[in-house]
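Homework-ish question, so no full write-ups if that breaks the rules, but can someone show me the predicted structure for this set?
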Amino acid sequence: MRSIAIALALAALVVLFYVATLVRLGGNVMNRPL
Amino acid sequence: MADVAYQASALRPAQVEGGSVGDFLALMKPRVMSLVVFTALVGMVVAPGSLHPVLAVIALLCIAVGAGASGALNMWYDADIDARMQRTASRPIPRGRVTPDEALTFGVVLAIGSVLTLGLLVNVVAGFLLALTIAFYVFVYTMWLKRRTRQNIVIGGAAGAFPPMIGWAAVMGSVSVESILLFLIIFMWTPPHFWALSLYRVRDYERVGVPMLPVVAGPTETRKQIVIYSALLVPLAICPAFIDLGGPLYALTSIGLGGVFMAFAINLYHTREGREGDRAAKQLFGFSILYLFLLFAVLLLERSLARWAG
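A: Not a homework solution, just the prediction itself:
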């Protein structure tokens, strides 16, 4: 039960940081040297 | 006999293994958390800047979790006295649902996580203020002042006053006169609020040796101090109307509610005996919550209407 809670919390943090990165960078997230 | 006692204590951790999600939520003091989130939201909305809604939600989430971390760490440190006070005896640690170690780990992880997340995803100033709030509540109030001085909640109240400043900083990236004023309103509101509560819970505090004002200085002095702090709070709470934080509706509300607040405080000063005295204290305690909520709600409403209209 506790392991599941920790796993869910970590997954939520990953999503949170992913979404926040998109929001902060906006379209610039695609703007990188290839 | 000693062996039996030892075996019983050795078994205890296994018995509390099953702390439920609800127990861990209770560790976070959800009612305090809701007031913290609300005042932080007001700080964000009245700030004259803009923040992406997703980042605003993340900021509120971090502030809520940071407040919850403070609550868990407070319950960890105060578990010994919580167990002996009627108001707090049913908290998860005294009831044996969560071990002190679990509460400590939970609190530390949430505190570090919320501060880092707010600092990295929103801005460093907001993250720093959240760290300061948690540190102030845990180290200055809980560990240092609470059991040592009658000024415990006067100084410790600063911790509860920071959230609108954090909300403001999340949007603006700075601290300003307006956010300091919001801080001061909650700071001055805390003593009359908690002293009213401690007047009718005085036996609890006496039993555990927490030097709340009624225990150390007596109920008459406490009533006098409540009137003094109320007289400082009420004019201070009208000030946002003069610096463009609040509009005419806020001016009317803060004056009207301030008058009622003073009336309850003066009534408490004059009503000192028995059940009537307790009732007057409960009235002020209950009204103080409504007072702060309505003041901030009107600030929120006025600023939201102004944004919608303009």
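Now go work out the reasoning yourself. Hint: Chain A touches chain B through eight residues (CB under 8 Å).
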